[in-house]
Design a protein that fits this description.
It is globular, with a radius of gyration of 34 Å. Among the domains are: about 230 residues, no CATH class; about 160 residues, no CATH class; about 130 residues, no CATH class; about 90 residues, no CATH class. The protein is α/β, with parallel strands linked by helices and about 950 residues long. The chain has 29 helices and 23 strands. The strands form 6 sheets. The chain has a 5-stranded mixed sheet with strand order 17-16-15-18-19, covered by helices on one side.
């Protein structure tokens, strides 16, 4: 047989025992190479653990680690310790003497296998030893309990040797049937996976001792006939039953496993995204191929049968990477591929630059050098990744964009896959909802929310020296802004530098610094307070108050908490930040020594010394939110909103004031008022006794049982009327004369509550889109038409984001308000300019499994009647604070620069947050659609201008 000859054991032509022996030896040859690589990366004491494990499961000896009792199952199939194992045992216990067991002693331990990173490209000093202990399926429960205690004792012993070991008992018969009730690795989601775990086992496990897998001997082309093929091998005695361990075939993977595995990796990716990217992408590859999935284990086996035993190319991480690379290159997704490459490089964690390069020449380093050479990475890029431990805000924020894009794409991909395969029922909707809310809390933006930028990217973002500057906002005359700069900058020197971050208000900036550990106890801060009254003393105390109110790291949020709507947990009220109230009341001519004065009615002249309040809230989902109140009614507005947000929450409220004059008295008075207001609120008394606020609602409430006839003089007026917000769902029947054979005559009767209905009609180069929202309000837009996918997908993405945000704001146990709104699609026919005659239901558009360019908008009210827009393009921030009236032009340039196609097409808003405009509730869908259309018009006009004048 030549070196490259492929072995094809064929039942029809007769199986040669010699061929089967050659096959087994090929797997063992590869196994020996992986085992040697695993040992190479271990310390001497850890190597002893690996060497001795088979011996400890083979014998019960009271002097050896792991001994429980003489009745503990012992004996590994076909194992006899070699001289090295016996020498290690004697080094451990001098009086130990091994005695060969004669006759036919029981061998209840059928096989020992090592799982995890050991022996792979990603092996590190801290890699766990995950050992599968495959035992006789006939062992009674008492014997299994003894064996489990032995495993626990061995874990404790391994720890004393510097090895973190985990042992998992495997009953092969139960496992083959998919029946298991334990986690099978320290990095596994438990019982929700079977075939994906088996796939990983077959392509990554290192055999330590005992029987070898039956699966090794079954050709890929016989996998579907696995049971018949293996029955023939056994019945015709080509192999003996006590030589093999049968964990089953790699049959078709149920689609629910992809979703379950993906959800688990997403959950882990929230805190450690690099570790999850590779596994999430592999799940995407498999899902994209479903039902004709070509598992990596099958490719691995095919390579061994063909005698392609290159240790590097068959390394588990290399095999995963190559498959993902193949997938992404075929789709032309170079940015995602670069993220995968960075993730792999950082996972391997072998620096290719710096002084360590000369000291080590391991196989991992050589393989990594070959890979990075293939990728075309230069010394500068390698040095950047090797300096990850020193990454600060700018680099982390840039990297976060790619990681969050990937995690969000994976979540959308999995939810769509679950829906298309109709497997929602097999996936726990509770788990899906909880995960969605974890992602929302960790990454979703909304008005006032402080963004956390470092989900496991770099170990420490704290800066040594920073400069804090207040300066005039050139974009908004008469207003100021705060900015944070690297280093210690002199007066006006900061003008020539780009800030780390800008904010309208100081506390928004300081809270962001605290939440992201940009400022810690060692950071030196230079202050240029501008026109504010902020002093270094006040700044120091503000940071201290933040550290006290929001203690880091934040505790983990339980699933039970996420099943409820978020509520405030810690509230910090900071009064008169950067403002001296007496300096602002100079006309009062008040003596500073006045005694027994009320800060809310100073010196009896009824001048309120509370000029501004900054509220910092940490809620039950670990979201940090900042809001500001100023003006003559700042205190009343703040307490009104505070009481409205608290509900039945027992949030801890702190009031602090560090301004130049009367700080303690002001803080005490506000604290008293807040406490009184909370007490009355808790007793269900109307807090309008404290806060004189009059609200008038002018709404038209329609009885669903009544028919409302509306006569409108013009079609434009009709659209205006139908597009108004409504307090609840109400059907409409319009005067036929007002419709004049319009499409609405057919559309309006379809209206139904608790859903969003999309109607479209095609007319050559244009299309009309109509949406009836959950309250039956109508939205209409006429758009250029190219195809149904490009017409409907942008709207579907937007509505998906809208429903996602809405669902995150509601408790799951409130049947009165549905968490999710179903979206229904209809086509108005016939196409063209003639009279519409019928409406036909359509299936929702199916998104291509491909990332799209995300354009998110946040609209908030910065002052009464003054709106502010911040846009995020592919997770990069563009604000009016920075670009002013050039905001849309700047975003248009960024969007056009990203496009590959020469054909011009519209830009769409994919996500919109209006929480900064809504006093309470989540807002009706029609409101979001109106703002969406206005923003899109501004963006597309800007794109036309930029395109015409590049």
């Amino acid at each position: 047989m030549t070196h490259n000859l492929e072995i094809r054991p064929d039942l029809d032509e007769g199986i040669d025992r010699k061929v089967l022996s050659q096959l087994r030896n090929r797997f063992l040859t590869l196994n020996d190479g992986r085992y040697a690589r695993a040992m190479e990366g271990l310390s001497t004491r850890q190597q002893s653990v690996m060497t001795l494990l088979p011996l400890f499961f083979h014998v019960n000896h009271p002097l050896l680690p792991g001994y429980v009792s003489s009745s503990t199952p012992a004996g590994v199939s076909h194992y006899e310790p070699d001289a090295l194992a016996l020498a290690e045992a004697q080094r451990l216990t001098r009086s130990f003497s091994y005695k060969v067991r004669h006759g036919n002693p029981p061998q209840p331990i059928h096989g020992l296998f090592l799982m995890g990173s050991l022996g792979t490209l990603a092996q590190a000093d801290q890699s766990d030893m995950d050992v599968w202990v495959c035992h006789d399926s006939s062992l009674p429960a008492e014997a299994i309990a003894e064996l489990r205690r032995k495993c626990q004792a061995l874990e404790a012993w391994a720890a004393t040797m510097g090895a973190e070991a985990h042992f998992f008992l495997i009953d092969p018969q139960r496992f083959k049937a998919g029946d298991r009730d334990t986690q099978l690795s320290s990095d596994d989601c438990g019982t929700t996976q079977h075939y994906l775990l088996l796939d990983e086992f077959y392509r990554t496990a290192i055999w330590l001792a005992g029987r070898t897998p039956m699966w090794w001997l079954v050709p890929v082309y016989e996998e579907e006939s696995y049971e018949d093929y293996t029955h023939t091998l056994l019945s015709k005695r080509f192999i003996r039953a006590d030589e093999v361990l049968d964990l089953g075939p790699m049959a078709q993977i149920p689609p629910g496993e992809f979703v379950g595995a993906g959800l688990w990796q997403l959950f882990k990716g929230i805190e450690s995204p690099y570790k999850s990217v590779l596994k999430l992408l592999l799940i995407e590859v498999y899902s994209s191929e479903y039902p004709s999935v070509q598992c990596l284990s099958m490719r691995f086996k095919q390579a061994v049968f063909a005698n392609r035993l290159d240790l590097d190319e068959l390394d588990p991480y290399m095999v995963v990477y190559r498959r993902i690379e193949e997938h992404l290159q075929a789709r032309g997704e170079s940015e995602r591929l670069e993220l995968v490459r960075r993730s792999l490089y950082l996972k391997v964690n072998r620096k290719l630059t710096g002084p360590t390069r000369q000291r080590s020449n391991s196989w991992q380093r050589r393989l990594l050098e070959r890979l990075t050479g293939e990728w075309g990475w230069d010394e500068r890029q390698l040095a950047l990744l090797d300096s990850r431990s020193q990454w600060k805000v700018r680099q982390v924020a840039h990297e976060r964009r790619s990681l969050v894009n990937e995690l969000n794409f994976s979540y959308r991909f999995l939810t769509l896959f679950a829906r298309l395969q109709n497997i929602e029922s097999s996936i726990d909707s509770r788990d899906m909802t909880v995960l969605g809310r974890r992602l929302y809390a960790a990454f979703e933006r909304k008005a006032g929310k402080v963004e956390f930028i470092n989900p496991g990217i770099a170990p420490d973002l704290a800066e040594d020296t920073l400069t804090l500057v207040q300066s005039p906002n050139k974009r908004e005359p008469g207003k100021n802004q705060w900015a944070l700069y690297n280093g210690n900058l002199n007066v006006h020197e900061w003008i020539d530098f780009s800030p780390i971050k800008r904010s309208r208000e100081l506390l928004e900036l300081l809270t962001w610094c605290h939440r992201n550990n940009v400022i810690d106890t060692t950071t030196r801060l230079a202050l240029h307070p501008g026109t504010s009254d902020l002093s270094e003393f006040e700044l120091f105390n503000l940071l201290g108050a933040l550290q006290q109110a929001i203690a880091l790291p934040l505790p983990e949020v339980s699933d039970e908490v996420l099943l409820k709507a978020s509520v405030p947990k810690e509230i910090l009220l900071l009064v008169n930040v950067g403002v001296d109230p007496l300096r602002h009341h100079r006309d009062l001519n008040i003596l500073m020594t006045t005694e027994r004065t009320d800060s809310l009615s100073y010196a009896g002249v009824r001048e309120n010394l509370v000029l501004t309040l900054d509220q910092i809230t940490l809620n039950s989902w670990n979201e940090t939110l900042v809001s500001r109140f100023d003006g003559p009614h700042a205190l009343l507005d703040c307490i009104s909103e505070l009481l409205g947000s608290l509900g039945d929450s027992q949030a801890h409220v702190r009031v602090r004031c560090f301004c130049h004059n009367r700080a303690s008295a002001i803080a005490q008075r506000v604290d008293e008022l807040v406490s009184t207001a909370r007490l009355l609120h808790a007793r269900r008394l109307n807090h309008r006794y404290l806060i004189q606020v009059q609200q008038q609602y002018h709404v038209l409430e329609m009885n669903p049982e009544q028919v409302t006839h509306v006569v409108v003089n013009s079609l434009g007026g009709l659209f205006t009327y139908l597009g108004e917000e409504r307090p609840r769902y109400s059907p409409l029947h319009l005067d036929p004369q007002a419709l004049d054979d319009h499409d609405l005559a057919l559309i309006l009767p379809f209206g139904q509550p608790e859903c969003i209905q999309v109607f479209y009609r095609l007319n050559e180069a244009e299309a009309d889109l109509y949406v009836l929202d959950e309250h039956n309000s109508l939205w209409h837009q006429r758009l250029p038409y190219h195809d149904e996918h490009s017409l409907l997908m942008p709207l579907q993405r937007f509505l998906h984001s809208l429903v996602y945000r809405r669902g995150a704001s509601l408790p799951l146990d409130n049947p009165a308000e549905p968490v999710s709104l179903e979206t229904l699609y209809y086509q108005v026919l016939p196409s063209g300019a003639g009279r519409a005659r019928r409406v036909e239901s359509r299936t929702p558009p199916t998104a291509a499994h491909k990332p799209f360019y995300d354009v998110q908008a946040i609209i908030e009210e910065t002052s009464p009647g003054q709106m502010s827009v911040t846009l995020y393009c592919d997770n990069s921030e563009y604000s009016e604070l920075e670009f002013g009236d050039q905001l849309y032009a700047e975003v248009a340039r960024q969007i056009l620069a990203k496009r590959r196609e020469t054909r011009r097409y519209r830009c769409y808003i994919t996500d919109l947050d209006l929480s900064g405009l809504l006093n309470e509730g989540h807002g009706q869908s029609i409101l979001f659609l109106r703002h969406k259309a206005e923003l899109e018009q501004l963006l597309n006009d800007a794109m036309d201008d930029v395109g015409a004048n590049p």
